[in-house]
Amino acid sequence: MSFVTNFLYYVILPYVLVLVMVRLSDRARLAHVGRSDIHDGYLREPPSTDEPMLLARVMGEDFVLSGVTATVLALEQKGVVRIERVPSAWRCLRIDDRMDEAHAAKTLAQRAASLERDTYRISLVSDVRPERLTEYERLTLELVFVDGRTSVTAEELAEARLEVPAYHTRQSRRLSSRATGDMHERHLVEGVSPSLFWLAIVLLAAYVLGAFLFVGFDVLPMVFFGLPGLAMTVVYSRPREVYTAEGRTLLVRCHAFQRYLVEFTRTRDAHLTDVVLWGEQLVYGVAVGAVGVAPRELFPKIESSRAPAAPDWYVSYVRAHDEKNADLSRS
Q1: What torsion do the CA atoms of 74, 132, 54, 259 make, to the nearest 10 degrees?
Q2: CA distance readout (Å), 269 to 70, 116, 159, 273, 294
Q3: What are the E-state strand segments in 59-175?
Q4: Backbone angles phi, psi at 178, to 5 degrees
Q5: What is the DSSP string of 26-47?
Q6: Which residue has the higher pLDDT, 316 or 218?
Q7: Rounded to whole angstroms, how far apart are CA atoms 104 and 108?
């Protein structure tokens, strides 16, 4: 029972506090949208004619991946890029001398299974005229086609994010800055909400006090699993931008469109190559967060294919081992 109590208190409760703080913060900034706010129930057409990147920003501050994916799909509709499904590339096995035989065999099986998976290739057409692209579209192409490439697979893009994270971070910040600037220029947001910092401090103080008086520290390592949640509670207590009446109207329309796609269509399971089938519904569905598959396909989480260099002792060991095997075979 002590283990269960510690688990609930130190691992689960911190993230419950995060959810409470997020909800309070969203209400303070007029960003919380419930079913009662969507008066017409659903919206069967895109919320507006704005670019999908801006609508992704309206839906939340963590918008870059969904906004970039939606913009790539819109560019495919315009004939600027071509999206196709291709076989997954071979990914080299990682050398790890700490692996036991069972772990190494499992790793080998996982890598072999990855050969059967497909990935997606995004190719830039040859006759693109930059002056016909919007700033969002140009920034998106710069983020996707790293190092001036004209063709890249989703796996190569994921590896580039691992190998040159500074470039991806810089381009993401440029997109974020541009979208935030447009939000203010369009008067969709203004000022900041009241700070909930002292409320967060009170919650944390009560949390620590409860730990000392009632729960105890029988399973001390569990405390560390809850620390990220406590830190996020403080982060979400900071003052944040407040939606204006116009901004909230657009936000509600985005949620109404999202609700329609999720409850009445199958676009939430659509793939990157389904833009021909779904058209604008898929483009704006990704932007408002109704489609979860497509962004994961463009930005998959994979390990780097670059195997680490073998240590110096490994080369000598292999040579000695080979010579020993050769002597045994001759004898």
Answers
A1: -30
A2: 15, 20, 25, 12, 8
A3: 81-87, 118-124, 151-153
A4: -65, -45
A5: HHHTT----GGG-TTS---S-S
A6: 218
A7: 6
Contact criterion met (CB below 8 Å) for 225 and 10: yes
pLDDT tens readout for residues 41-62 = 789 999 999 999 999 999 998 8
Spatial separation of the C-alpha atoms in residues 141 and 81, rounded to whole Å: 9
pLDDT score, position 239? 93
Q: Give the model's pLDDT for residue 99.
A: 57
Distances (CA, A) of 305 to 93, 111, 146: 8, 11, 17
Angle between helical axes of 165-185 and 154-163 (0-180°, round to 10) = 100
Distance between CA atoms of 10 and 14, rounded to whole angstroms? 7
List the structure tokens of 256: 């109404």
Name the strand (E) or helix (H) holding 67: helix 64-78
Burial environment of residue 6 by CB neighbours within 10 A (0 to 12, 13 to 18, 19 or more) = buried
